[in-house]
Amino acid sequence: MSGDVPVSVIVLTRNEEATLGNSLRRLERFDDVVVVDSGSTDRTAEIAVEHGARVVPFTWDGGYPKKKQWSLEHAGVRHDWVLLLDADEFPSPALVDEIAALVRSGRVDEHGAYDVALLYRFAGRYLRHGHRVTKRSLLDRRRCAFPEVGDLDAPGIREVEGHYQPETTGTVGALRHRVVHDDRDPVASWFDRHNRYSDWEAYLRRHAALRADVAARRTAKGALFDRVPFKPLAFFVYAFVARRGFLDGRAGFDYAVALATYYWQIGVKVRELERADQAVARRAG
Fold this sequence. Notes:
- The chain has a single domain (5-284), classed as Spore Coat Polysaccharide Biosynthesis Protein SpsA, Chain A.
- With 285 residues, it is an alpha/beta fold.
- It is 41% helix and 21% strand.
- It starts with a strand and ends with a helix.
- Strands 1, 2, 3, 4, 5, 6, 7, 8, 11 and 12 form a ten-stranded mixed sheet that branches.
């Protein structure tokens, strides 16, 4: 890579041969692209090299830092400003232009990090309405770090940081254009991932201090929604009606139902854990 945008891109991978090439082709304007790979057994590393990226191996040792923070510290990036992406994510052309203009103007340092909204692909369609995921993806690694929230014993999400944002000693800005989340995997893989994610979320809800710590590090929207009662119904109404997810047709409906079901799944698992704790207490008594 020898593009005209002086920003380092870190792409996190594990067995991503199906999507990685498409994402790396969209990063050609960036001067430095690093793929941090967790022992892929497919062609992930080969594809990365073919597209001019540097490959840095990562093996999680079971402690902190987890993969994202480790990458900021040890991936050997050339620049202080880093765009942190998953293997199926890439910046839209408009976002690349926006980042380039921000860096060249010198205004990028006005903030320590920037939030970016995702253009999400689900069930074969890009969702332009409904719930919008926001990630803190553009980071000044001198002023940003992922917190150690105490979730090393939590199931579901292990080597990569969970659903919380990196912290910065500066302020947080917002970029106008989006990162494309180009998920082309079968829908079954979405449910597999969210089954694991719900294990992690249920664990949080059974550990009040950990839940509060993670909630404080989510985006303002995420922290607010964490306190909403009747989450499955509330989320469906929010995503499909209030945020006009119905304009995305059947895919918009399916996505709203899928995420509402995810929140229902968390609740079921929390209640199961509570019953198990009560059974242990009765036996001890």
